[in-house]
């Protein structure tokens, strides 16, 4: 076998820049986030001075990991929308993949919500509308995101009227035949048809957005259960959630009705993204501007617990990979 053929097997992404060193084109600044096999850096193009984000992914094995990275890149290459984080460049070495992305400097959804001086249904509706715009576009391209959750919804900038962008298309899937079956995503945000391992469509993204909106309005998860994942799964399957008093007392009826529509157990009765965009509440016409101060505080608590759990899970995953070499003190330092 020739050397070129041997090298071709070491590369995962068609069209990636293999002869250019990422670090000669970009200068790396701070760490923005860290996962089990990837790190996101804030960086700058040395020639244009444009600030961006670089997702540096360690190649570990072939099968599933390669498929996830390839799916993300394939999806991003086809998507160009104001509410979707844009891929700017891609580099690849034998050991790493470097995905250069548009910088969403405003931070994650819940991190921003808890810092707002005034937060109400109107901001929740504004966020939801822009996520729906992104989903209408991606679904129109035949691409389902399959992992809509708060940490994948970002503010483009620090301004109050910042654009909202969805990110992380690692689980994205091109719906060639309209049906998917792979279990993926994050359990608390998964639609009933996903946890039941039934064939499903891009309608799963609408359910997941419904869960995010539920939390945006009240500050806690709709399907939490003290028994853990088994109880959560049961509640999801039956659509077992409530608008409990006093937590929902200040939330308008149109907001509650819209949540119900998104979290309809039967996917055929769920609105499409295009249909959901026409809802008067999500357009802001019927959204209340009453301050949701107590909701903000509950989101703050929920967000802190979510981050701690994510850090703990990262330790477990890394220890499986490294045979216990990764210490808990390393992982549970404050998240970037």
Automatic annotation (TrEMBL):
<keyword id="KW-0067">ATP-binding</keyword>
<dbReference type="GO" id="GO:0005524">
    <property type="term" value="F:ATP binding"/>
</dbReference>
<dbReference type="InterPro" id="IPR008271">
    <property type="entry name" value="Ser/Thr_kinase_AS"/>
</dbReference>
<dbReference type="InterPro" id="IPR011009">
    <property type="entry name" value="Kinase-like_dom_sf"/>
</dbReference>
<keyword id="KW-0547">Nucleotide-binding</keyword>
<dbReference type="InterPro" id="IPR000719">
    <property type="entry name" value="Prot_kinase_dom"/>
</dbReference>
<dbReference type="GO" id="GO:0004674">
    <property type="term" value="F:protein serine/threonine kinase activity"/>
</dbReference>
<keyword id="KW-0808">Transferase</keyword>
<keyword id="KW-0418">Kinase</keyword>
<feature type="domain" description="Protein kinase">
    <location>
        <begin position="26"/>
        <end position="282"/>
    </location>
</feature>
<keyword id="KW-0723">Serine/threonine-protein kinase</keyword>
<dbReference type="Pfam" id="PF00069">
    <property type="entry name" value="Pkinase"/>
</dbReference>
<protein>
    <submittedName>
        <fullName>Calcium/calmodulin-dependent protein kinase type IV</fullName>
    </submittedName>
</protein>
């Amino acid at each position: 076998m020739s050397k070129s053929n041997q090298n071709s097997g070491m590369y995962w992404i068609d069209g990636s820049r293999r002869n250019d060193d990422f670090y000669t084109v970009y200068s790396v600044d701070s760490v923005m986030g860290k996962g089990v096999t990837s790190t996101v850096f804030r960086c700058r193009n040395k020639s244009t001075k444009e600030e961006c984000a670089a997702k540096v992914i360690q190649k570990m094995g072939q099968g599933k990991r390669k498929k996830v990275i390839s799916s993300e890149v394939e999806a991003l290459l086809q998507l160009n929308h104001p509410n979707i984080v844009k891929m700017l460049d891609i580099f690849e070495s034998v050991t790493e993949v470097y995905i250069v992305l548009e910088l969403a400097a405003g931070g994650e959804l819940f991190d921003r919500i808890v810092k707002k001086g005034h937060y109400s249904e109107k901001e929740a509706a504004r966020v939801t509308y822009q996520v729906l715009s992104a989903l209408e576009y991606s679904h129109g391209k035949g691409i389902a995101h399959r992992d809509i959750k708060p940490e994948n919804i970002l503010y483009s900038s620090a301004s109050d009227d910042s654009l909202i962008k969805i990110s992380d298309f690692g689980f994205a899937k091109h719906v060639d035949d309209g049906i998917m079956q792979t279990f993926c995503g994050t359990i608390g945000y998964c639609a009933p048809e996903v946890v039941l391992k039934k064939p499903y469509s891009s309608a799963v993204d609408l359910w997941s957005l419904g869960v995010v909106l539920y939390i945006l309005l009240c500050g806690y998860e709709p399907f939490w259960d003290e028994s853990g994942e088994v109880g959560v799964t049961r509640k999801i399957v039956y659509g077992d959630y409530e608008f409990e008093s006093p937590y929902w007392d200040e939330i308008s009826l149109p907001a509650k009705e819209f949540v119900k529509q998104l979290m309809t157990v039967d996917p055929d009765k769920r609105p499409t993204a295009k249909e959901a965009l026409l809802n008067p509440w999500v357009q802001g016409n019927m959204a209340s501007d009453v301050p949701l101060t107590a909701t903000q505080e509950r989101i703050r608590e929920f967000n802190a617990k979510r981050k701690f759990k994510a850090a703990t899970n990262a330790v477990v995953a890394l220890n499986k990979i490294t045979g216990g070499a990764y210490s808990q003190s390393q992982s549970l330092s404050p998240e970037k």
